[in-house]
Amino acid sequence: MGNLYLINAIIVMEDRVLHEGFIHIKEEKIESIGEMESCPLLATADRVIDCIGKQYVIPGMIDIHVHGAAGFDFMDGKREAFEGIALALAKEGTTSFLATTITNPVSYTSDTLKSLGRYRTDSNGPGSAEMIGIHLEGPFINKQQKGAQPESAIILPNANLFKEWQELSGDAIKIITYAPELDNDFELLTELKKNNVIPSMGHTNATYDESIHAITNGVTHATHLFNGMKGMHHRDPGVVGAVLLHDDVHVEIIPDGIHFHPDLLKLIVRMKGLDKVLAITDGMRAKGMPDGEYDLGGQQVTVRDGTCLLTSSGSLAGSIVTMNSARMNLANWLELSIHEQIQITSTNQANRLGLSSRKGSIKIGKDADIVVLSQDGSVELTICRGSVAYERIGAFK
């Protein structure tokens, strides 16, 4: 799809909404944007997509914490699984993602990281959601806050092992979720900062004082806020208190209405501001699949009525929420404008990962990662780097 036009579109740009506009996509990039009255002749277009009657055209969403979808998990370690997840994510309006691991034995994680690194460089082309890196969740976590992470494979933070894994992955690791209170002299944290990898506190049992100490030394991110961390207490504000009070820390949230009470979002936004909040799905292989029993890191998960629980313990085990559902939930719970919705699902993520020059908004020269929404807010069309990755049947003539 080398020469594509979207016409008669309501385009949500960085600073305004362009009504009755067009977008010209050439190869993988946005070539031009303008009013329909200045739209070039379309005779040379490979395809023209008429967006009249659609709600909005928005930038593709970016999920920085997702384990799987469509029956696949990144820990499957196979190209078939990676491709299946990437195509499934495009259906929900996600055009970029961090492939997220789960605590597993060192040798198994090594093999998976090597496979993910190879996929990222060799098979990560247009027409499906782009793997922009890896989010390593575990194994350097606290057993007391393991959640759905397999306890038998949890190990202490290890800077040398991280360096080995980063090399195996082809420098693909962008975020590491770990328990900083277990990091001796912050050896791992120091290495992460040297490699420009985001240190994220998660599955941590740190006290408030330990959390502040970690933040002071460079931890700048919190994995799925409230979940897998010591909560607030009036005599120990815990990880949650430290994260909310410190302006430099970005927070991930899972807006599924299950992982925390929706009204807590109002507290989060008042404390952090929208620019420090990043919607994630923490999606597992059951996303987009029927209710039933599924595997997560070698453990059985029961999925019923939108909730994922470890069969053995009843602990929450990821989610099946989509990024588009997360966007709509946030819009309803916080009464967000369309620009604010995009900020929390795309722009913040691009900024956080240093990708704002090519992702996170609709702008000339950026990657053509674009989503067309229907009047009810559902995804009608997803374009990933200039190629149609998903199109709802009958949505366009």
Kindly list the characteristics that best describe this protein.
397 residues; alpha/beta; Urease, subunit C, domain 1; TIM Barrel; 2 domains; 8-stranded parallel sheet; 4-stranded mixed sheet; 9 helices; 21 strands; 27% strand; globular
Number of helical elements: 9
Instruction: Look up the CATH topology of the largest domain.
Output: TIM Barrel
Which CATH-level-2 architecture of the largest domain? Alpha-Beta Barrel
Approximately how much helix is present in the residues? Answer: 25-40%
- Count every beta strand, where a strand is a DSSP E run of 2 or more residues: 21
SSE succession: EEEEEEEEHEHEHEHEHEHEHEEEEHHEEE
Give the CA-based shape: globular
Walk across the major sheet and give the strand order.
Answer: 6-9-10-11-12-13-14-15
Top-tier CATH class of the largest domain? Alpha Beta
Account of the 3D structure:
By secondary structure, the chain is an alpha/beta fold. The chain folds into two domains: 3-58 and 362-391, Urease, subunit C, domain 1 (Roll); 60-352, TIM Barrel, CATH 3.20.20.140. The chain is built from nine helices and 21 strands. It has helices at 79-91, 106-122, 159-168, 187-194, 208-216, 238-245, 264-272, 323-334, 338-352, and strands spanning 3-12, 17-26, 29-35, 47-50, 56-59, 61-66, 68-69, 72-73, 94-100, 130-137, 173-178, 198-201, 221-222, 250-253, 277-279, 292-296, 299-304, 307-310, 370-373, 379-384, 387-391. The strands form five sheets. The protein has an eight-stranded parallel β-sheet. Helix 5 crosses helix 6 and helix 8 (323-334) crosses helix 9. The relative contact order is 0.17. The mean pLDDT is 96.
